[in-house]
Design a protein that fits this description.
heterodimer, A: 63 residues, mainly alpha, B: 463 residues, 22 helices, 71% helix
Amino acid sequence: MKSLAKIISYLALAASLVPSLLYFTGMIDHDAVKWTALAGTIIWFISTPLWAGQCETADTSAN
Amino acid sequence: MTTGNQLTQVNEYEREPVPPKAQLGAGKFWGMYAGEHTAGTEFMIGPLFLAAGASIQDLIFGLLLGNILAVLTWRYLVTPIAIGKRFTLYYQLERIAGGSLTKCYNVVNGVLFCFLAGAMITVSASAVGVPFNIHYTVPEATFGFGAPSFTGLVVVVGVIIAVVAAAGYQAVARVANIAAPWMIAIFVACGVVSLVQMEATSFAALSEGKYWSDAIAFVQEKEGVQAFPFWQIVAFAWLCNGAMHFGMADLSIFRFARSASSGWAPSIGMFLGHYMGWICAALLLAAQIKLSQDHSANPGALAWGALGWTGIICVVIAGWTTANPTIYRAGLAFQGVMPTCSRKTMTLVAGAVATVAGAFPNLSAQLLGFVGTYGTILGPMGAVVFVDYYLMKKIGLRDDYAVRVGSSVNLAALVAWLLPVSIGLYLIFAKGIFAAYAVIPAWLACGMIYLALSKLTQKPVPA
């Protein structure tokens, strides 16, 4: 489950960044960049808490 | 600018050296610094470089050199002392300068934190206001309010941030950790989109830099000719975190480092947040000028123009996740002076001060000067720690003098701190020198004065 969430997070991160590069090369328009980045953002914040952040909290609180 | 996710660590082993079992590998520090220096204030600082008239070449090479110097300062000034003693800055200061003086220093730090948090509240409010058509405008007067609707929004945002900070920072720290890689991606995306908006999509256009020089020309036509030359950029990039490295605040972080190589970790924060982030944020303003002939550095509107709702979310999260721990830290500092008051109460007091500061948009617009002033005030005390660690024993004086004689105020440290800081503040506010320029002279003067006064005032004490 965590591995799947991790893969989804990386794809979401790519969806937040890559469209701007495609816009730079003229392959997509500005609106497509905005909506893809928003979708990537939403998915990132849903999937990433499933695998990230927990270990950091545990580690630091153990100090 | 830095934030405070490390608080979870700072509050442990406050009065004892960090034991080997609690020491951390370098990876933890790299992760922490990556998030810490990609903050809401980057959206404000980047455009200010453009508004101040910095050329793109000076910005690229000046930030590069300044950030390298900052990393070297962390690595070779802070880390050796941190892993040599493994104490927090405050405990070291208490041992050297005395408890009362350390509390005083801590309160000053807390007040400055409130102003920093205020700037972050302003940044967040600027973004929240965009969908509601609430405009962020910077009045002429330093302590002038913006539009009433914007002031009201600042109060709402400030109250929410203060209440969340008072409830505890764990959840916010977790959101900050999760958001960090995404924020970095969004900064890059903002920069790339801005370049396309300025039609700078070829190597020739990028290297010619007309997109930047046109924006500078526009700003100077409206605001008059200004200059922000190479060495000023170097000084700013090097010393904007002067309180953290020259001031030794990050002793509290690196005391957990297993090896000195962790001292290279700030490089990721510097080159993602203070290099790429600032340049991308500056490009946002250049694009806005080209598209709408508007040179107001409104972080929310700038991010909206590039990435729409994603930009707004980024500015809000960046501002919120950095303001929150900053207010929490300020609350802790205030509580140190009034231990009978609860931490929650003092955090709310800090939040109220930050919200009032955030209601004055001109304060955040003067962030370039503020962070230099912040370093000038807090940085010199790091020289006292440096002298105590490296020089006192070598010249036959006692280190940790206050704890050895049971003093609550080491006069040598007090005078060594106040004298150069007073002169530095006079030069900044009365003579108008660029604030970051005062940090290193004040640091050197503080160290020399502390050494000389210790030589004159120290009395023999048993080993």
